[in-house]
Amino acid sequence: MWPTVTYEELTWSSSAPLSRRMRAKQPRTYCSSIVAPIAEQDVALSAPVVTSLTEATAAIARFDQKHAGIVAPFAPLLLRGESFASSRIEQLSSSARRILEAEAFQTGRGNAALISANTTMMRKAIHTRHIDSESIRAMHALLLGSESPHIAGVFRNEPVWIGGSDAHPVGALFVPPHHSYVQSLLEDLTEFIRREDIPALAKAALAHAQFETIHPFADGNGRTGRALVHAILGQSSLTTNGVLPISAALLSDTQRYFAALDSYRDGDVAAIISLFSDAAVSATMLGSQLGSQLMALRTEWAESTTLRADSAARKILDYLIQQPVVDAAGVAEHLNVSPATARRALERLEDDGIVRSSQVTKAKRAWHAPEVLELLDAFADANRRLTFRPDL
């Protein structure tokens, strides 16, 4: 039997500046979660759950093998699409063009900058092979280091809650455990992640749900928790050649996603594991579809460009599939040509209708591939049925 979340009554004291009248209206107590450790917890799964888990694992393996050959050239774009989708679960959205401009030129603010930072965090996550509390903090620091440096990579030191009033946790949808428990619960969670007797996808699902229940940070828990999923899948060698766009699949039915997290807190592990199994299968289809669309677009470009087939500048086409927002300096460095050669090639592609130019800043001229950006926007928004829960 998986442990359920229980509750304890704690004294409430607001740290916000309040008038005497408002402070008198504040509640005196609130109920906070008590989260049980899971490092040594038995994981008992029904036959149907095991079957769906096995089928999903096989689908991931096939996708990863395909990724090594056919999809590999598009891996950087697939990673960005997954980052965009994970951010949209948190109601953070911006156009692919603005996000990639923020990434390439550090020009963005607001959502574009936050989503760009999420891509950086996710890139680190898929290459993380030793998962402990420090590596989790390092991921979080990448996410919020620019936007909220005072809380980036720092475990929370005050109560947090989901839903309800902004003033106090009474009546909230969920109140995570008191901050004094966070460090020990994270240590227990990373010990659970090191176990080798649990299928990788099931372990990722359970670890994600436990992480969201602990809610170790003041903000950014949902995005960090989904990055943790990629770290676990990579550490377990289930994904070795790229990213599985599981957030894009979860985005298609966030109501089921949130309900599965609630069920986990009631001691039901089947809901979250079944969700992740279904999402993993959907993710392989979404990823393959995006790869096929990008391959078709690359072929179309090759047929329409006036650049010579043996021209070094023609390699820009492959670069634009990976990095659809560029400037002449970046292209020159990537192709090992002069900035003048890169600029002439980009202007030729603009004449061919493959890229468009714009002034990102007064001193920065950039080019973007609109068809790639349209595919990215569509990918992040695919089959979306969104139910919002603040700071999942």
UniProtKB/TrEMBL annotation:
InterPro entries for the chain: ArsR-like_HTH (IPR011991), DeoR_HTH (IPR001034), Fido (IPR003812), Fido-like_dom_sf (IPR036597), Fido_containing (IPR040198), WH-like_DNA-bd_sf (IPR036388), WH_DNA-bd_sf (IPR036390)
Residue positions with a glycan: 118
Residue spans crossing the bilayer: none
A Pfam family of this chain: Fic
Keyword Transcription attributed: yes
Keywords: ATP-binding, Nucleotide-binding, Transcription, Transcription regulation
Keyword flag Acyltransferase: no
Positions that bind ATP: 219-226
Active site: 215
Record CDD domains: HTH_ARSR
Protein name (database record): Fic family protein
Organism per entry: Corynebacterium lizhenjunii
Lineage of producing organism: Bacteria, Bacillati, Actinomycetota, Actinomycetes, Mycobacteriales
